[in-house]
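pasting for ref
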Amino acid sequence: MGACNPPISHLLPNHHHKTLIPPRKPFFIIVSSSSKPQLTINRRQLLLLSLPISLTAVELSSSSSSAVAASIFDPITESEKAASSEVARRVAEAVELLEKGREFQAKGDYVKALQYFTQVVREYKDFALSEYARVGRALALYEVGDKNEAISEMEDVSISLKGSPEVHAALAAALYSDKHASVLAENQFAIATLLDPNYTDLGY
C-alpha cells in the first residue's frame, strides 16, 4: 500500500522551493479630485442622519407651528370687526335717510322732509352728519310754519357748524323777517358772506 499512496511531502511548506502561489500585486485606490464634492455631500448627509430623531422632529414641528401661526394671526378681534360692521351699517342708513329728506325738500314736500330729517337727528345724533340733518330740519320747520322752533334750531346749528354759510344766511333771513332783529340778522349775513362771497350777489 505504501507504494500506491502518492507522496504528500510536496503539499507541505517547503522553504527550499519556490511557492506555487503567484505573488500578489499591491492594490491602490485612486481617488480623483472630482470625487471630493461627492464625498463632502455624503458626509453632510451622514451628519444629518446622525442627528437625534427627537431634535429633528422638534425643529420641524416648531417651524410648521410658526408658519401656521403667522398665517392665521389677525390683529383685529371678532368683536372689533362686528362693531365696525355695525357702525358702517348705521352710517349707511343715516345717509340714506338724509338723502330722502333732501329729495322731499327739493320737491317742496316739507312735511315728509321734516320726518326724515327728524329721524336722523333722533336716531343718529352720535354721527357728525346729524348736524346737516338739523339744518334741513330747521328749514323744514320754517316752511311748515313752526318758525320759532326753526330759528332756535338754526341758532344752535350755527354754533356747531360755523363753517356753513347756508346756515348763517338762512338764520339771517329768519331773524330779519320774523324776529325783526336787524342787527342780529346783519351779523349772521356778514358771517355768511365771509364764508361764501356769492351771497353778496343779489342774483345768487
